[in-house]
C-alpha cells in the first residue's frame, strides 16, 4: 500500500451502491408523499397501493402506513389484527408512530388482547423518541391511575409537555385540568392552543365538551369549535 493511499474500509459500499441506495430512499419518499396526498383526498385504494409499494423495501414509515390503512379500513377491509402485525414490524425498526399506533390497539383491545402494560411501554418508548402525542397518552395513564394511585401533578406535567410539542389533545387536557381546578384564566391559553392545532374531529369533541359550560368564556370557545365543523 502506498503511504498516501487510504485504507479500504471493509463492508463499505462502493459509490455506485451508495447512489443506488440514495435513489431508492428518494423513491420511497415520493411514494409516501403520493400516498399521503391520495389519503388526504379520500382516494383510499390509491393511497394503500402507494404505501404498499413503499413498504416493499422494508421502510418502517411505509409499514406503519399500511398498518394504518388496515386498522381504519382505508382501501381495504378493516383488520386491526393485521394492522398490529404491520405496526410490530415497523416498531421493531424503531418507528415512533408505529409504537404509538400499536399502543393504541393494546389500550383499546382492538385486534389484540387488551394489555395496559404493553400499551404504556409502547407509549413511553414512542415519547422517548419524540412523539408528543405519546406524552398525552402517558398523561392519561397518570390521571386515570392505571398502575398506581392517580397522580394529577404528573398528568399535568405530561399534558404540558405534549402541548408544548404541538399536540392538541395534550393542550386540551391541560386546559381541562386547570379549568376543573377553577383556574379558567390559566386554562384559556391552552384551550386556544388546542384549537389552533386541532382538526375537524377534535374540534367537534372540543365543542361538545365546552359548549354550555357555566363559564361564559368556555362556553364561547365550545361554540366556536362547533361552528368550525358546522355543528
From TrEMBL:
Signal peptide: none annotated. Residues 13-23 have a biased composition (Basic and acidic residues). InterPro entries: Mitotic_Regulator, Sel1-like, TPR-like_helical_dom_sf. It comes from the Bacteria. SMART domains: SEL1 (SM00671). Residues 1-23 are annotated as: Disordered. PANTHER family: ACTIVATOR OF C KINASE PROTEIN 1-RELATED (PTHR43628), CHITIN SYNTHASE REGULATORY FACTOR 2-RELATED (PTHR43628:SF1). This is Tetratricopeptide repeat protein. It comes from Camelimonas fluminis.
Amino acid at each position: 500500500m502506498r503511504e498516501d493511499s487510504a485504507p479500504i474500509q471493509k463492508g463499505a459500499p462502493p459509490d455506485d451502491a451508495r447512489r443506488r441506495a440514495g435513489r431508492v430512499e428518494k423513491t420511497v419518499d415520493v411514494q409516501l408523499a403520493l400516498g399521503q396526498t391520495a389519503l388526504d383526498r379520500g382516494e383510499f385504494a390509491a393511497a394503500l397501493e402507494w404505501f404498499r409499494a413503499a413498504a416493499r423495501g422494508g421502510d418502517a414509515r411505509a409499514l406503519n402506513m399500511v398498518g394504518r390503512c388496515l386498522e381504519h379500513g382505508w382501501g381495504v377491509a378493516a383488520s386491526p389484527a393485521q394492522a398490529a402485525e404491520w405496526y410490530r414490524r415497523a416498531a421493531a425498526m424503531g418507528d415512533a408512530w408505529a409504537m404509538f399506533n400499536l399502543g393504541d390497539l393494546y389500550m383499546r383491545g382492538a385486534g389484540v388482547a387488551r394489555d395496559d402494560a404493553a400499551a404504556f411501554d409502547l407509549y413511553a418508548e414512542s415519547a422517548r423518541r419524540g412523539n408528543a402525542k405519546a406524552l398525552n397518552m402517558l398523561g392519561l395513564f397518570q390521571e386515570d391511575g392505571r398502575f398506581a394511585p392517580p397522580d394529577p401533578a404528573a398528568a399535568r406535567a405530561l399534558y404540558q409537555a405534549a402541548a408544548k410539542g404541538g399536540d392538541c389533545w395534550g393542550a386540551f387536557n391541560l386546559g381541562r385540568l386547570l379549568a376543573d381546578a377553577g383556574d379558567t384564566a390559566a386554562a384559556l391559553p391552552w384551550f386556544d392552543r388546542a384549537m389552533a392545532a386541532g382538526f375537524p374531529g377534535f374540534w367537534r369533541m372540543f365543542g361538545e365538551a365546552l359548549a354550555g359550560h357555566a363559564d361564559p368564556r368556555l362556553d364561547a370557545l365550545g361554540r366556536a369549535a362547533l361552528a368550525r365543523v358546522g355543528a
